[in-house]
Write a structure and sequence with these properties.
Residues 583-696 form the CRC domain. This is Protein lin-54-like protein. The protein has 811 residues and is α+β, with helices and mostly antiparallel strands. The protein is built from 15 helices and 29 strands. Strand 7 and strand 8 (147-150) form a beta hairpin. Helix 14 runs antiparallel to helix 15 (777-810). The protein is elongated, with a radius of gyration of 34 Å. 62% of the residues are buried. The structure holds a DNA duplex (12 and 13 nucleotides).
Length: 811
Amino acid sequence: MDVVSPELNSLLPDEIMDTEAIEDIPHSQPDGTAVQSEPGDDTSVPMETDTPAASGNVNLCPDAAPTEQTQTLTTSAPADSTFSISTGSQLPISISSVSSPLLTLKPSMATSTATTRTTDSVTGTTVTTSGLQKLTAPFTISAANHQIILNKVASSQATEAAKSAASQPQVIKQDGQKLLVTAIGKSGQPIVLQLPHTGNKPGVSQTVGDSKSPAPQFKVVTIGGRSELKPVAGSASNQVTTLQAQQLKTVQIAKKTPTSSAAPIKFIITKTVNSKGLSPQTTVSPVIAGRVLTQNSPVMPPRTITLSEPHNTSIQSIPGKKIAISPLKTPSKVTVVSVASPTSNASQKSVTLPVNVALGQQILTVQQSTSASPVKVATSQTTTQNIKPVQSVAVGGVGGSQFKTIIPLATQPNVQQIQVPGSRFHYVRLVTATTASSTGQPSGPSTSSIQTAKPMVVSTGAVRMSVPIVPAQTIKQVAPKPLTSAAVVTTTQTQQRLIMPATPLPQIQPNFTNLPPGTVLAPAPGGGNVGYAVVPAQYVTQLQQSPFVTLASSSGFPASTAIQTQARLPLNGLSTAETTSRPRKPCNCTKSQCLKLYCDCFANGEFCNNCNCNNCFNNLEHETERLKAIKTCLDRNPEAFKPKIGKGKEGESDRRHSKGCNCKRSGCLKNYCECYEAKIMCSSICKCIGCKNFEESPERKTLMHLADAAEVRVQQQTAAKTKLSSQISDLLMRTAPVISSGGGRLPYTFVTKEVLEATCECLLEQAKKAEQTHQPQAEAERLILEEFGHCLMRIISSAGKAKADCASINC
DNA sequence: GAGTTTGAAACT
DNA sequence: CAGTTTCAAACTC
């Protein structure tokens, strides 16, 4: 059984995609401290650096172990862009340029004889997690669009050939094979590592198998286009610096073999961060489990991306391995990671996540297959163990499209949700509990099982949270765990959705991107053990608040409704700020069970929480019903859960309703109209009658003016109230202490009841006197006023005297 | 707060 | 695809 080592998990938050599955690595030492790589297996794949004139500098800095073959490639690039890659145990990639054009790196060959040998059986791409890493696959880095695409040859034969002739260069097919690292940050541009389409280059042979199998694209979606560099690599010598592809990743992607039952080819991208746990040398990783790390440092620590693929002879012989990855056509990007069933030790049992790319979504399938030979991953503390890759997929849609994370879950996986700092994505780490027990993972002090269960907290900037979550099946096993004070849960990201594989539901898989958050795809009857659960960001937040993933949690906690804290997902077409500033209205559904689009909560992919609905099924307790309802909605309208209001290219003015309204009586000037409600004009696609919601509409202008006026009034009133309140407060602040102390009392404070009565008596007495003397009325009034003046003078005098006395006393 | 109006969603 | 019904929000009183 495979369990992600705690160290690796602890490092994961920093990573976009992190599959830490390393399996079938022969010759791994039992203690697991180091995975030994076989020199013979090391297939040196010439890596060429193709650097466009305008591209940034690419440096391959091998650091290396003496035995390592490393090459340093430096490519001329724009001054602003620098890309450096050192292949030793690590592949450091540094991109210092944002605006630089596409940078294509073709490392001639970097082979490292590190302890860990992970070689892509198909492409020969090797990524080592234990300090030795091979980067044999050429890759392209486009700093301009924040995309780094690593193209990997998906030919099993290539690997086989490589094994047969180690000296022979492996074939790298560069067509369409991409490792896409997408950093959705400020620009929203992904970082793509891509193999150049150089075809066959000198020293590079292409295998037949490659031509048959479609070029797999591996897309790693990173979080937040931060410019900071993070130390990901373990060994000090090996460093990868990337301004935008900062995420450490260990991605093991099992190539799906459609035609063969043989074990799937695995493509492993291992970020050095993970290797930290594997390699004692690794020390740089900022991410520490249980700690809050601030990653918003302007200086981005170097990152290492390791591509490793365990050798599997059986696998290698299988041509035509495929990875179901959709072309990069649609803005929506989906990465799907499947975790093989932990229960099967049978060789080549691959649980390939059937990812449907139908919607043009980019889907990354990361699969971990259990092979006969156990994968030996050297961790500092653990012995040989199979590490299940845990993948998080972030789908970054253009124009506020949906972000989703699809994670295949093992049978009894533990999930750790990771919030990458600065990222708008939530990451989920899945750990197979059963594997931990079965593999007899070392029960060291800091056993991985325990650590994995613990929530990771990674803080960077405003968003800083990594919380373990459990898969849909094990949701009831979540035990509440108080968050640390440092843990700050923010859901500032725009629509974030996590798809957690729970059990297979093939019929829905094609619509992953359309699935609303919170969707749990139930396993299809007779299907595999891999399913999907679409977890909304809110859900992640919910889980963050209490859930504690226990590995051996067979005892089910009842599905906690408490964790269903309503989170705020951006509404259609609205920015996060807009949505976060305005809490969603609770629904009042009575008949729909909140499982129809009538319900705004459901329509927005949210769980009901603090709503006024009756007989609500839109919660975790009714996953099945909810799933079914979602499927129904999707069947009816595949885009049912997509935002209705698409963002225009340039600001709000271009926003428009995707379907248009059908208003008949409201003139589209009431909130009945979805266009008006969204504060957008009706467009040509609207079918409304008597529409007044157009630019030149006088009614609309009047309404707008009235609205503006009302708003102004409200603002003025608010300002006036605020001012008055402040004045009163100020007055109270000035007077209250005086009154209490007696010193410095204002004169009027001396006008007590007694003083007032005395004054009145004086005035009356003066009036009587004038009356007795038969003074004219005017004179009488003068005398009275004069007496009043005298009274005031005496009061003031007394006040001053009292103040002086008080002051003297205080002194 | 109850009742009415409205239009999207669901249904036929 | 069109017409009708259902539904819940928006609105009015």
